[in-house]
């Protein structure tokens, strides 16, 4: 028994001694190990140990997921549902429409809009309210009658006004600061599903997809893969802070529904247009007095241009800003006020922020040599002041008439004319006229003033002779008998 206890005691003491030896000589810290290794191996060990975690990794902290909750809460209350009622005005129909059962029948289309001021100004798309006889805005289950403040086909932007106070105006962001790859959400009412939010990223900027109307279409779209569907038009594209960065406008689709590509008007352009429509009733477009095209590899090779960035001047307007500054056909514009011009999208967007009378510095290439010019931008009539264009809208004619601007007069070789800039069912369409026709004379008398022309046509009966220019640039002369 004594021997057994003695053996157990000796074994225990031996174990303690062995553990001490193991700890002292064999178990070493990374630092002590590295001190006994070659320099290259020691540096590798030190690098690894210095970045080794000292506590379990918290994946939610090291790579936090994107949350759209705050952005949604901030923006959904500022997006409204819009109803466009049309087709009920009896003055747009003839007795033949009634005879063949094509009389007035109400049509309703829908879209979205964004509240930009607490006193009731709302931005939407022009195509959302196009042809409307009555417009309703629904916000938080309350319905308002809306007044149309103004429209701009060149950007597909329109402004409405409702009589209300204390509305939740959306916070404005900056589309110029928006980065490709940045998360965004689209807020709107697709398929009449109100207050719907979808998420995606900014896929591209300065996109041109050739869908806009107007005399001077301005396309520099934000492209996003956030799902946008019919009914989203006019709604908000916002960043993760809930700030407005664009107005959702279009989808690229063969089916009529979302297939991966959505487009929004940059907020910096949309709100400049809205501001002009509210203050002046007309967008104050600043023009350099040129026509330009994108540089393609084929053009670059033909003209021996060493860059694909910029735009090529194809025409200089007589007595325009560019002519006064010495620019010529074939010059390549590379910068405007130090902002690089990569193509037509960036060229048009760069100009869109200025007003007539503003002076800009233009960098350009002529035969490969860098040059600089100072331009004083002009309005559409060739002046430098605020412009209020003359127009006349008539339900009986079913059209909006405007005086032809200086750019079109130069392009068409005209001294005057009245242009049809919008047309619906009515008198002029029955005569075979279409959007874009320019009337230069009526019964051999010059057509200059839209209001005079409109009232004359509303009251006229007898033999009517119209002369002018068709939308394709071809002259036309047509006689009618009007009863």
UniProtKB/TrEMBL annotation:
Alphabetized Gene3D superfamilies for the sequence: 2.30.42.10, 2.40.10.120
GO biological process, one term: proteolysis
Enzyme class (EC, first level): hydrolase
Superkingdom, natural source: Bacteria
PROSITE patterns on file: PDZ
Entry-linked InterPro entries: Chloro_Bact_Ser_Proteases, PDZ, PDZ_sf, Peptidase_S1_PA, Peptidase_S1C
Entry keyword annotation includes Protease: yes
Ranges of residues in domain PDZ: 292-368
One family name in Pfam for this protein: Trypsin_2
Keyword vocabulary terms for this entry: Hydrolase, Protease
GO molecular function: peptidase activity
Enzyme Commission no: 3.4.21.-
Protein name per Swiss-Prot or TrEMBL: S1C family serine protease
Organism this protein belongs to: Algoriphagus namhaensis
């Amino acid at each position: 028994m004594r021997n057994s206890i003695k053996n157990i005691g000796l074994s225990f003491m031996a174990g303690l001694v062995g553990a001490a030896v193991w700890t002292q000589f064999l178990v070493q810290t990374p630092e002590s190990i590295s001190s006994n290794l070659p320099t290259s191996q020691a540096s590798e060990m030190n690098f690894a140990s210095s970045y080794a975690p000292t506590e379990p990794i918290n994946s939610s902290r090291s790579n936090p997921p994107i949350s759209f909750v705050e952005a949604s809460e901030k923006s959904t209350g500022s997006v409204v549902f819009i109803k466009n009622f049309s087709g009920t005005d009896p003055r747009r129909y003839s007795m033949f429409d009634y005879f063949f059962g094509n009389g007035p029948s109400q049509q309703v289309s829908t879209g979205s809009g964004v509240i930009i001021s607490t006193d009731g100004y709302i931005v939407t798309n022009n195509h959302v309210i196009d042809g409307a006889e009555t417009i309703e805005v629904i916000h938080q289950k309350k319905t308002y009658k809306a007044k149309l403040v103004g429209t701009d086909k060149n950007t597909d932007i329109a402004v409405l006004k409702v009589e209300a106070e204390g509305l939740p105006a959306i916070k404005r962001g900056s589309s110029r600061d928006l980065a490709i790859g940045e998360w965004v959400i689209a807020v709107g009412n697709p398929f009449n599903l109100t207050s719907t939010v979808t998420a995606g990223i900014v896929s591209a900027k300065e996109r041109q997809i050739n869908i806009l109307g107007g005399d001077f279409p301005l396309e520099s779209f934000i492209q996003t893969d956030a799902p946008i569907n019919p009914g989203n038009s006019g709604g908000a594209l916002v960043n993760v802070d809930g700030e407005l960065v664009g107005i959702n406008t279009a989808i690229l689709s063969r089916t009529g529904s979302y297939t991966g590509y959505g487009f929004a008007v940059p907020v910096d352009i949309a709100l400049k247009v809205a501001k002009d429509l509210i203050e002046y009733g007309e967008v104050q477009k600043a023009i350099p007095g040129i026509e330009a095209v994108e540089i393609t590899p084929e053009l670059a090779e033909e003209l021996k241009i060493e860059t694909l960035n910029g735009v090529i001047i194809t025409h200089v307007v007589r007595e325009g800003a560019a002519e006064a500054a010495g620019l010529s056909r074939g010059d390549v514009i590379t910068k405007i006020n130090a902002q690089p011009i990569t193509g037509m999208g960036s060229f048009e967007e760069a100009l869109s922020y200025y007003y007539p009378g503003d002076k800009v510095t233009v960098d350009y290439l002529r035969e490969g040599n860098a040059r600089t010019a100072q331009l004083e931008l002009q309005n559409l009539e060739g002046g430098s002041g605020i412009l209020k264009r003359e127009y006349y809208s008539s339900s009986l004619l079913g059209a909006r008439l405007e005086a032809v601007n200086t750019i079109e007069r130069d392009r068409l070789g005209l001294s005057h004319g009245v242009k049809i800039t919008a047309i619906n069912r009515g008198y002029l369409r029955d005569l075979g006229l279409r959007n874009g026709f320019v009337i230069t004379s009526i019964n051999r008398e010059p057509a200059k003033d839209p209001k005079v022309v409109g009232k004359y046509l509303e009251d006229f009966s007898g033999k009517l002779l119209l002369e002018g220019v068709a939308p394709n640039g071809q002259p036309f002369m047509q006689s009618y008998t009007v009863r």
